[in-house]
């Protein structure tokens, strides 16, 4: 993919020496086949289509986007739970894109994951002690007695009673189960933890407990997180940098403050304005810009800019013809839009009518000139 | 007279371990054209309250008492035939999970038509026209073609719209929405909330909105009921509640919410777990988790009383006004500072 290669370049240069993970033009297509004996590939679902980013040691990268934008597929590719179709994943200075299962094994203990559903991600037939110890046993990290001690330590670290070692998952509430999930991820001292919507299934009060826990653990053990969520409030609270995904692409990358203070991509703007504000006066005074329709099918994505069918700033003959590259704004702030937002917040009228000229001229203008 | 007036509603379930008091003396009223928000954690009795009003709890091992006056008649005293006539016609409900509340083997058109034919004496053709009209009203693109599709052919947001269309199809006077947007993305949530307020303006229905998201409450509710452990702990018009929350539990809920308009390093967390309703704590039910607890809280249960200077604002807490003013001011300052 030529376009994504060029897009990847500025991101890669951003990473300093302490970058832990670099993803360059990651692509994952799922084939759609027809036929029973002779399977013919008739189409492909472009779940992730050229995503590039870096994660530095000790930081939290938030990833936001609607359902079906490829957040989870991207995470699973990074974890090598799925084999990427293209692109490159460099973890801790080592290219892990094409490592075999056996070669991946020692690296697996440095990459852990916390899953969304605390009810489905713990084996109901195993005791909590076993669930947390399993990774330690697989990687042969200690004798039985040492492992047991470590597990009890971990239970304490995540705020559970170490004596609950022998209990089954059903004896815990949703929030406590998610703590078990966190303890399991921490067990082998990983370098990177991928959190795939870890608080989406929880009540607000429990959500606050888990978010605080994740922040505390990060400070204590210097952890690095990729934090996937669809809740922009949660992402803002926990992230240092944020990446916004839409239909398998990253449309905007920025530090947290840049993104929430001064979003550039109209999609980010639409997401931000859709978040309910828990303040009746402010919330009702502001007019939310509501994005119409659903995310298009990744089976047959729109041409050029992927967002153009839903975009309030869509310009015919430009946005549907020229794919926007990731334009650079301030340091570390990039967005893929020809007509970026001039300021924020803005009214719906301002959102619909860009005042500044496009960052690159439409093709008709270049041919005429 | 209020459209719906619930007084001292109690729902107890008999289980092998004892009696679970899922709703324990809840009172509120809903006016025509107004939106009542009910907030609380999972297991605080929000949904059971509404299921009891609708008569949807299993009859076996359920004990309900109190009153739910609907247009002058008590819903709790009605037999199932009378209730069936009201449900889906005068009172409609939107359930939380759009994935499981539609029948997967019937086309959505047929499910909508069924809802009309049960309550209206119209031909199938007229019913179909009405179904189509509603699908358009809730913003399903190409409704003419999609009316014969099956639920699995729709996305989550689209299914929730179908559920809303079904709930509104007989112009209900009251719409009970049980976490209608919890499973959805922010953009879809904004679409659904806009739709609900627009339809409320068009049809003049009252809405009971159950949610645990205070952002949604601030956005659409007129009055708010905060529930904790099967009881109402605070009840107020929406601006009063957010301006001057009176109960430590409400403070906890507001503080635990990460929000775009406020910068905090650490979220306030409510310690511990909600209590078991088999054997709720003595005294104030919130006292084991309350940071302001003192002796009286542990022995005597506070009553739901109006606060001084504001009769519409009810709260259930022993704490003195002065401490409350100070603590609530901290929270609201956070909100206005940004």
CATH class of the largest domain in chain A: Alpha Beta
Write the CATH architecture name of the largest domain in chain A.
Answer: 3-Layer(aba) Sandwich
- Strand count, sense and closure of the main sheet of chain A? 8 strands, mixed
**Alpha carbon gyration radius of chain A:** 22 Å
Low-confidence stretches of chain A: 1-16
Using the coordinates above, name the CATH class of the largest domain in chain B: Alpha Beta
SSE order of chain B: EEEHEEHEHHHHEHEHEEHHHEEH
Q: How many DSSP E strands of chain B?
A: 12
What's the CATH superfamily of the largest domain in chain B, by name? Answer: P-loop containing nucleotide triphosphate hydrolases
Can you say what the CATH homologous superfamily of the largest domain in chain A is?
A: P-loop containing nucleotide triphosphate hydrolases
Sum up the overall morphology of chain A in one term.
globular
| Residues in helices of chain B, as a percent range | 25-40%
* Chain-averaged pLDDT of chain B: 88
Strand content of chain B: 15-25%
Number of DSSP strands of chain A?
12
Largest interface, C-beta closer than 8 angstroms, per-chain residues: A-B, 46 and 46 residues
Overall tally of domains of chain A = 2
Whole-number average pLDDT of chain A?
87
């Amino acid at each position: 993919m030529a376009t994504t290669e060029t897009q990847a370049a500025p991101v890669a240069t951003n990473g300093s020496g302490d970058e832990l993970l670099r993803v360059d033009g990651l692509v994952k297509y799922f084939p759609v086949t027809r036929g029973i004996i002779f399977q013919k590939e008739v189409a492909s679902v472009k779940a992730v289509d050229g995503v590039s980013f870096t994660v530095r040691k000790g930081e939290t990268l938030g990833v936001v986007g609607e359902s079906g934008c490829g957040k989870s597929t991207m995470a699973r590719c990074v974890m090598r739970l799925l084999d990427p179709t293209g692109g490159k994943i460099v973890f801790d200075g080592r290219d892990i894109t094409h490592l075999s299962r056996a070669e991946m094994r020692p690296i697996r203990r440095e990459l852990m994951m916390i899953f969304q559903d605390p009810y489905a991600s713990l084996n109901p037939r195993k005791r909590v002690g076993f669930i947390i110890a399993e990774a330690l046993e697989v990687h042969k990290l200690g004798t039985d007695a040492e492992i047991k001690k470590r597990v009890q330590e971990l239970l304490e670290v995540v705020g559970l009673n170490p004596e609950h070692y022998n209990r089954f998952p059903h004896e815990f509430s949703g929030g406590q189960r998610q703590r078990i999930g966190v303890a399991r991820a921490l067990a082998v001292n990983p370098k990177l933890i991928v959190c795939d919507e870890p608080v989406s299934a929880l009540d607000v009060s429990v959500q606050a407990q888990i978010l605080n826990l994740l922040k505390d653990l990060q400070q204590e053990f210097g952890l690095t997180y990729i934090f996937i969520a669809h809740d922009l409030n949660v992402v803002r609270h926990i992230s240092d940098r944020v990446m916004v995904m839409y239909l398998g692409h990253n449309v905007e990358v920025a530090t947290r403050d840049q993104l929430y203070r001064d979003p550039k991509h109209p999609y980010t703007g639409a997401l931000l304005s859709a978040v309910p504000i828990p303040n009746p006066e402010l919330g009702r005074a502001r007019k939310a810009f509501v994005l119409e329709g659903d995310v298009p099918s990744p089976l047959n994505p729109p041409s050029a800019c992927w967002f153009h069918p839903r975009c309030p700033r869509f310009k015919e003959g430009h946005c549907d013809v020229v794919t926007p590259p990731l334009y650079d704004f301030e340091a570390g702030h990039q967005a893929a839009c020809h007509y970026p937002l001039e300021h924020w917040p803005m009214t719906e009228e301002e959102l619909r009518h860009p005042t500044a000229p496009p960052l690159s001229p439409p093709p008709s203008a270049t041919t005429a000139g | 007279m209020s459209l719906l007036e619930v007084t001292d509603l109690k729902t107890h379930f008999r289980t092998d371990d004892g009696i679970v008091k899922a709703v324990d003396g809840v009172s509120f009223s809903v006016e025509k054209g107004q939106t009542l928000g009910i907030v609380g954690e999972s297991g605080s009795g929000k949904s059971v309250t509404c299921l009891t009003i609708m008569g949807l709890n299993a009859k076996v091992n359920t004990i309900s008492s109190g009153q739910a006056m609907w247009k002058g008649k008590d819903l709790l005293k009605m037999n199932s035939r009378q209730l069936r006539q009201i449900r889906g016609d005068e009172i409609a409900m939107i359930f939380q999970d759009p994935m499981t509340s539609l029948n997967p083997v019937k086309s959505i058109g047929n499910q909508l038509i069924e809802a009309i034919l049960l309550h209206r004496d119209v031909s199938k053709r007229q019913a179909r026209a009405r179904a189509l009209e509603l699908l358009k009203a809730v913003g399903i693109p190409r409704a003419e073609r999609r009316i014969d599709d099956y639920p699995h052919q729709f996305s989550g947001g689209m299914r929730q719209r179908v559920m809303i269309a079904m709930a509104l199809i007989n112009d209900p006077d009251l719409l009970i929405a049980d976490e209608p947007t919890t499973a959805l993305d922010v953009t879809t949530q904004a679409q659904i909330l806009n739709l609900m307020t627009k339809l409320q303006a068009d049809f003049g229905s009252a809405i009971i909105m159950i949610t645990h998201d205070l952002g949604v409450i601030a956005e659409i509710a007129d009055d708010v009921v905060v529930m904790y452990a099967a009881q109402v702990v605070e009840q107020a018009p929406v601006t009063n509640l957010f301006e001057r929350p009176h109960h430590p539990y409400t403070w906890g809920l507001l503080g635990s919410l990460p929000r775009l308009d406020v910068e905090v390093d650490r979220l306030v967390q409510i310690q511990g777990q909600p209590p078991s309703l088999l054997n709720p704590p003595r005294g104030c039910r919130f006292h084991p988790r309350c940071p302001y607890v003192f002796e009286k809280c542990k022995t005597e249960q506070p009553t739901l009383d109006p606060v001084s200077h504001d009769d519409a604002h009810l709260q259930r807490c022993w704490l003195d006004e002065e401490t409350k003013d100070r603590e609530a001011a901290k929270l609201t300052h956070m909100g206005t500072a940004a």
